[in-house]
Amino acid sequence: DTEVTQTPKHLVMGMTNKKSLKCEQHMGHRAMYWYKQKAKKPPELMFVYSYEKLSINESVPSRFSPECPNSSLLNLHLHALQPEDSALYLCASSQDRDSSGNTIYFGEGSWLTVV
Amino acid sequence: GQNIDQPTEMTATEGAIVQINCTYQTSGFNGLFWYQQHAGEAPTFLSYNVLDGLEEKGRFSSFLSRSKGYSYLLLKELQMKDSASYLCAVRDPAAGNKLTFGGGTRVLVKP
Q1: In this predicted model, which residue has the larger pLDDT, B15 or B42?
Q2: Would you call A95 exposed, middle or buried from its count of C-beta atoms within 10 A (0-12, 13-18, 19+)?
Q3: Residue A56: its chain B contacts at CB < 8 A?
Q4: pLDDT the model gives residue B2
Q5: Exposed/middle/buried for B107, CB within 10 Å: 0-12, 13-18, 19+?
Q6: What is the rounded CA–CA span in Å between residue A48 and residue A56?
Q7: How many alpha carbons lie under 13 Å from residue A70 in its C-beta half-sphere?
Q8: Which in A69, B23, B46, B63 has the greatest CB count within 10 A?
């Protein structure tokens, strides 16, 4: 089972709202990722968690706040977003961060619209 | 720095073969991945190469030459459902082993 589950699938939020995107995997993977993808562009890495610790932050604005409550869950807390933050947010996981041959599996994504 | 290049678009006929090239320049190399992404959906893993040579998986094959910084994805016996974007991605240990994607190649399969 190579399943990464994301909720919600669609989210519309105002610029003053606080919301969260959630991601779950039960493959025993110890690396989890958030990517952002705009239309007709490739996914861009935002954050990497390795063994529940933040290992990479790609200079993401603080209005995006990741959280890894345990090895199966990854959240992305959203606050005071801008319309240009509207995108597909992809969660992914892999066995670990560094081993050669680790496949990164993506969830279905959460479509975010900021109004 | 990292630079991953692939053609923007390709068109092919149902039943034919299409080859999508990917060239990369990265500080380090720890594997090259190919993903398929249909419009409005998440990327789906297709293949992985870390050693030189050809990896075959059914109708899809992927080739790697590390010395040339080059890979290709070969799609045989094209079907209409193969119309999608194909993403080449490289894992770079010099960049925390993060996966960096090329711009993607949109393949359109025509009857």
Answers
A1: B15
A2: middle
A3: 96, 98
A4: 76
A5: buried
A6: 5
A7: 5
A8: B63
Residue numbers in A near B102 (CB within 8 A):
42
**Gyration radius from chain B CA atoms:** 13
* Mutant choice from B4, B45, B66, B99 vs A, greatest count of A C-beta within 10 A: B99
Model confidence at A64, pLDDT cuts 50, 70, 90, reads very high
A79/chain B closest Cα distance in angstroms = 24
Q: Which residues of A touch B91 (CB under 8 A)?
A: 102
- Residue B1: pLDDT band (50, 70, 90) is low
Residues in A whose CB is inside 8 Å of some CB of B read 2, 33, 41-45, 48, 55-56, 90, 97-98, 100-109
pLDDT reported for residue B60:
96
Tell me the one-letter amino acid at A43. P
pLDDT of B97 reads: 82
| Of A42, A44, A100, Cβ closest to residue B31 | A100
Residue B99 token pair: 């996966």
- Residue B38 pLDDT grade (very low, low, confident, very high; cuts 50, 70, 90): very high
